[in-house]
Write a structure and sequence with these properties.
Layout lengths: L1 H4 L6 H10 L4 E4 L2 E4 L5 H18 L5 E4 L3 E4 L4 E3 L3 E4 L10 E2 L2 E7 L5 H5 L1 H6 L7 E5 L5 E8 L2 E8 L4 E4 L4 E4 H4 L16
Parallel strand pairs: 4-7, 8-9
Antiparallel strand pairs: 1-2, 1-5, 3-6, 4-5, 6-8, 9-10, 10-11, 12-13
Length: 197
Amino acid sequence: MIAAQSPHYLTPEDYLAQERHSPIKHEYINGEVYAMAGTGGFHNIISGNVYLLLRNRLHGSSCRTYFADMKVKLAEGKQFFYPDLTVTCDSDDDPSLAYITQPKLIIEVLSESTELFDRGKKFQYYRTIASLQEYVLISVRDYLVEVFQRMDQGWFMQTYQGEDAIAQFQSIDLEVPLTDVYATLDLSNVRPGNPSQ
C-alpha cells in the first residue's frame, strides 16, 4: 500500500502506456522505472554483428531474434527489461506485442554503467524465467564472451576469450567465432571510460 502511494510508483499497465510514447527507454522493476543509459559505437557494432549471426542461423525456423527494443516481461508484469538481444522460439510470444515472456536466449553487451547490474541483480531476475536456457555477456573492452547455461544442477558458465575463440550457444546450436562478434573493431587501444564503447 505504501508503494502504491509513492509518486514514483506505476502499475505495469501505466508503465507500458507511458513507454509507448517515451523517447527514452525505461526498465521497470516492481513499480519503479529506471531510464536506460545510451550506448556507444562499440556496443552498437557488437550488437549488430551478433544480431546478424543469430538471424542467419535462425532463418526459416520458428524462432525470432529481437534487437534492443523488445522488452522481456517477468514475474507476471512486475519487471520489464530491454535485453540487447533476445531469441524466443515460443509461439505464445506474439510479435505484435511490446514484450515477450518466453525467451530462450538473452544477450547483454556490457557497458561500464550497466555491467554490475547485468552480472548481478538483472541475471538474478532473468534466472526466474523458466524458458531461459542461456544468458550471454559480451565485453566491449576485451575479446571476451561469457555464456551461462541452465543445467539440472544450476547455471554453468563457460568463458571464451581471445580473437580466435569460438563461443558455443547451445540453446540454438550455434558456433560464434569471436572474430565475427567483434568484426570491424580493434580493441587493442580500448580504455576504461571511452565514450565510444
